[in-house]
Amino acid sequence: MTRRLGCPTRYDVAIHARCGAQTLVPPGALPVTSVLWERTLDATSTATVVLNLEQAQTECCQGLDAVEPGMAELSVYRDGQLAWQGPVSTTTGQPGGLTIEARDVSAYLARVVNTADVGMKSDTNQDLTALVRKAVVNNLNDRAFSCPTDYPCMVPSLHLENTGVKWTTARTTLWVAYVLDIVNKLTELGGEWYATGRTFVFRRERSDTDRPQAVLTAADLTGDVQIVRSWDDLAARVWATTSTDTTAGITVSEGQSCTPYGRADLLLTGITAPKVETAADRTALVKQLRAQRDKDIDAERAAANTKLKAVTANDKLTQKEKDAQRTQIQHDRDAKIDQLNREFTAAVDAHDTNVTREQNALTTAYLQQLARQALKGRYPVPASLRVTDGAALSPDAPVGIEQLMPGERFDVRVTDRCRPLVQSMRLTKLSVTWDTDNGEKAAVSFAPLAVPPPLPNGAARA
């Protein structure tokens, strides 16, 4: 049976307390004037509904009094099927109506500061998904800060799929950042994410080995459909560097230079690689080593003083013998203290050397992976499908609304051009609008689907 996008006969909204613990406004209770909802790749999607309160029943309006941003959640239903869900971010009252803006469940992660150990060093392989799991699950379940644990009820619905890009969980420093920022940083190395309903998805990027959700033609896209090929999108070699105008850093490149295009370089600058050790970590370690050295020195001095007292109290020794033994004891003490100082300095130097080596290895692997990610889909000059404002999927398009998920592969065939396009694309955004006068419009954005390249040293595919 061939699926169709179709034309919904109605849209309804419902409002619940977070996690559905209490229904504040049941589905269909409030007249809906207009709806806008999205599904977005690697970004938090939004929804906006406008309610007609002049036609609403009194008891439903009373339920709106309990709609508190951050505590209430909006659900959007398309012909009775849940299409979008997420926490309310803003409510705006106007004469005869109410506008409710909401964000998908990833917005919860944008308000949580990481307190869990999340690693980024390059010496032990862990899939990026394991790091995402740590960042999300450990923080939402942190009893010291999350009351109750998993307060947004996201953990049971997480969909985490290995990306094939491996990194390590070893890290000596706490990664202080919002959890969603950590997910975005990891996404730069590989993988993709989106949220739908209560489900937060982090997975590998789709490639030409994945089955397409549908084959779309120009007839399935209403409005002005443009095929764009731009020199600005071309890159045969990508350079990534931590250097700045005033400081030297590490620079790597991936790709090729001898191409029919000549040189087609892309430069990634302003990159800050994850740190193996912070200044505070080093200070704490040096303080610990120094404390141990001082303790050993104090013990050596105490032992020497005990020996000196014993020599002084020994009446069997001549004064000359006592002086000689005292001199030897003091010499041995000073030599031992010098040795302890040298060992302290050597330990600090060895630590700094190891950290520098580890940092250079981490930075190099990190830059290589960023460069290879940036190179995807840029050679030869890629074709992109641009659907202008007002254009949308036709109701007869052979795809169900449930298939229009960010990152999924769609094969697009546009042959009524002087230079046709037959290409595998990935859906980057779905933006759906509906109102009582014009019905539904489902606008889509696509980007080229690239075959993942091999990974650099320091990372590996499963």
Keywords:
462 residues; 27% helix; 3 domains; 23 strands; elongated; 3-stranded mixed beta sheet; 11-stranded mixed beta sheet; Phage tail proteins - horseshoe like beta roll fold; alpha+beta; Phage tail protein beta-alpha-beta fold; 29% strand
Can you tell me about this structure?
It is elongated, with a radius of gyration of 32 Å. It contains 6 helices and 23 strands. The chain has 462 residues and is α+β, with helices and mostly antiparallel strands. The chain has 3 domains: 11-104, Baseplate protein-like domain - beta roll fold (Phage tail proteins - horseshoe like beta roll fold, Roll); 105-205, Phage tail protein beta-alpha-beta fold, CATH 3.55.50; 236-379, no CATH class. It has helices at residues 58-64, 106-109, 128-140, 179-187, 279-313, 319-375; strands spanning 11-17, 23-25, 32-40, 46-52, 72-78, 81-94, 97-103, 126-127, 159-160, 166-167, 192-196, 199-203, 215-217, 221-222, 225-229, 237-241, 251-255, 265-268, 383-387, 392-393, 409-414, 421-435, 439-448. Strands 1, 2, 3, 4, 5, 6, 7, 13, 21, 22 and 23 form an 11-stranded mixed sheet that branches. It has a 3-stranded mixed sheet with strand order 9-12-11.
Number of strands: 23
Tell me the radius of gyration.
32 Å
The computed structural class is alpha+beta
Total tally of structural domains: 3
Residue-averaged pLDDT, rounded?
A: 88
Q: What distance separates the N and C termini?
A: 36 Å
Q: Give the SSE order as H and E letters.
A: EEEEHEEEHEHEEHEEEEEEEEHHEEEEE
Low-confidence stretches: 451-462
| Number of separate helices | 6
Percent of sequence in beta strands: 25-35%
What is the helix fraction of residues, given as a range? Answer: 25-40%
In one word, what is the shape?
A: elongated
| Biggest sheet statistics | 11 strands, mixed
